[in-house]
């Protein structure tokens, strides 16, 4: 079924074609009568998108209530409790490697700097130790985090995260909820039915070999052939996905979503694919349209900052699940 965006683009093209007129001397000859359709069109788009998002949100709430939603959490979740940004990591590596920040030739990513760090130092160990110390917050901060409390209470069966910190694990411990952390192949043997899994998709500070940090690490990971990648495909093909804390321009996540879409396309059963979602504070219309093509609905909240928006969204999702009746069977 076409979305409101697709339906209204068709209408926009039709009305736009009828309202065009030759342009002379830099001014359009299009008069008020020809343009009278535009306000009603924009109102129609707004109303239909609101209805569409309400329906999509209801689908997400139902899937979450039924234990069919997998959460995928990014850096925005960690920043909500005060962890530093990637800029601090870049500044630290520049200082350690004597790479001046004001050098126009030194405009490199943190992955490339980490690759250079490993070449210079012989291993990533010292950098990992610094990150472990710096990207650590008190249990008291996690305890006060309503966002982490809501995530635990929503009872996702599996949580994937690209964050290196242990704030999700701490939140589960503080709220006395059992879980299993999965970082490598060995951890897969510890998973059991009914126990939430926290999958550290880009590794964990407790295992240097598991960290996806350098440029080589990322390039290797983009092949999507590691044991955790195989697990991810198995976990997600039949479930609803909810992404939070990610930038819509995050290339790794966009590639992952694209590959999932291609897998369903190749199966010939794309219409059976469960609905999936990405929460964004201020979504780009362009990226929203592309993700919608891949089967990902972008949801948002009208709040002044990302943390408030995420809190509002998760609060609304929790309330919606509580208002639903228990699934039968």
The gist of it:
The protein is of the alpha/beta class. It is built from 16 helices and nine strands.
Helix content: 40-55%
User: What would the average pLDDT be, to the nearest integer?
Assistant: 81
Total DSSP helices: 16
How many β-strand runs?
A: 9
Radius of gyration: 23 Å
How big a fraction of the residues is strand?
A: 5-15%
Separation of termini?
29 Å
Q: How is the largest sheet built, in terms of strand order? A: 5-6-4-3-7-8-9
The helix/strand class is alpha/beta
- Helix-strand sequence: HEEHHEHHHHHHEHEHEHHEHEHEH
Can you put this structure into words, describing what you see?
- This protein is of the alpha/beta class and 329 residues long.
- 53% of the residues lie in helices and 10% in strands.
- The protein has 16 helices and nine strands.
- It has helices at 4-19, 32-35, 37-65, 75-79, 86-97, 110-121, 125-134, 139-144, 146-153, 167-174, 185-188, 215-221, 227-236, 251-267, 285-293, 306-323; strands at residues 23-24, 27-28, 69-73, 158-161, 180-182, 197-200, 240-244, 276-279, 296-299.
- The strands form two sheets. The chain has a seven-stranded parallel beta sheet. Strands 1-2 form a two-stranded antiparallel ribbon.
- Helix 11 (185-188) links the parallel strand 5 and strand 6 (197-200).
- Helix 3 (37-65) crosses helix 16 (306-323).
- Mean pLDDT is 81; it is low at 4-30 and 41-50.
